[in-house]
Amino acid sequence: MISGMDMLYRRVGSSGLKVSALSFGAWVTFGKQVGDPVAKQLLHAAYDAGVNFFDNAETYADGQAEIVMGHILRESGWPRDTYLVSSKVFFGAEHEGPNQVGLSRKHVVEACHAALQRLQVDYLDLYYCHRPDPEVPIEETARAMHDLITQGKALYWGTSEWSAAEIRTAHEVCARHHLHHPIVEQPQYNLFHRTRVEQEYAPLYQAPGLGTTIWSPLATGLLTGKYNDGVPSDSRLNAAGMEWLRDRLTGDPAFARRIAAVKELAAIAAELGTSLPRLGVAWCLKNPHVSSVILGASRPAQLQENLGALALVDQLTPAVMKRIDAISRPVAD
Ligand code: NDP
Fold this sequence. Notes:
This protein is an alpha/beta fold. It is 40% helix and 12% strand. The chain has a single domain (4-221, 281-315), classed as TIM Barrel. 46% of the residues are buried.
């Protein structure tokens, strides 16, 4: 079990904000796959291990994930300056009317107010645009984010799955109009999904100094080996409403080759005396452009296991990384 003493903290890009290298997110689990008592155990275990960032979004369980997290945060009595909490705007919560989704000024502001209520906090530490919105000028969204920051309702803003060109445009608009600029991007990053973080964003790390809080570090469970012999009945791929995820993962043309790669990676994990989940998470941590790896877990034991990845990072020597690369790169996108 790791304690807060063992946690590492990294700067979020060139901002002054410090985030735990391992953080914890609520997608699929809070308000959906797990009951409230388990959600509480998970959040407390994360906090006790030094995790200072809890990730959420308006769309997770249609707002329920934020409600569950809000209750736990309120009851915890944790000082507000010891943790960061995020929300993300774009997909909408319960309703999907024309102004209840997207990145218009109207929805960005109203979604922020709704998230603050659900999470029972006075401000969001990080407020992300969950996807780009081709129907809204970036300047409109950037101004809305700037105003929320000026009003103290959000401290920093960021993007999720924006292209490098869109992030650059946001920075240009913000520089031109003296607006608070985005400090962080939230992309998918794992052994099977690498191009965007490693290549597309590469020019942005130095200047403007992009930070990243990366999602699905275990490729939504694939890298744990749990799907090697089919989809277990108690996994997220069998949760109600998650058929689309099961189809996307198992229907990928590379699925069978990825399962084969996972089996080869398991041999490396065994040699190192560790587990596949730890190997997958530690591999993400090796990338210095990753500010934080957002963990997901539906059971406290999974979380404890994955938190142990911190101790593995030094064992991933250049020689080991080369072997991991040779196995995973041919099946990565
Ligand atoms: P992972 O890829 O790590 O998948 C987590 C899931 O894998 C768990 O819920 C569990 O699934 C399984 N798992 C994890 N550890 C273990 C283990 N040790 N042993 C066995 N199974 C394990 O991360 P997520 O996909 O959950 O993403 C993490 C966070 O990133 C989310 O909570 C969310 O905050 C954020 N996110 C952001 C997105 C965005 O668009 N910005 C998109 C997706 C996620 P099971 O319950 O089936 O056992």
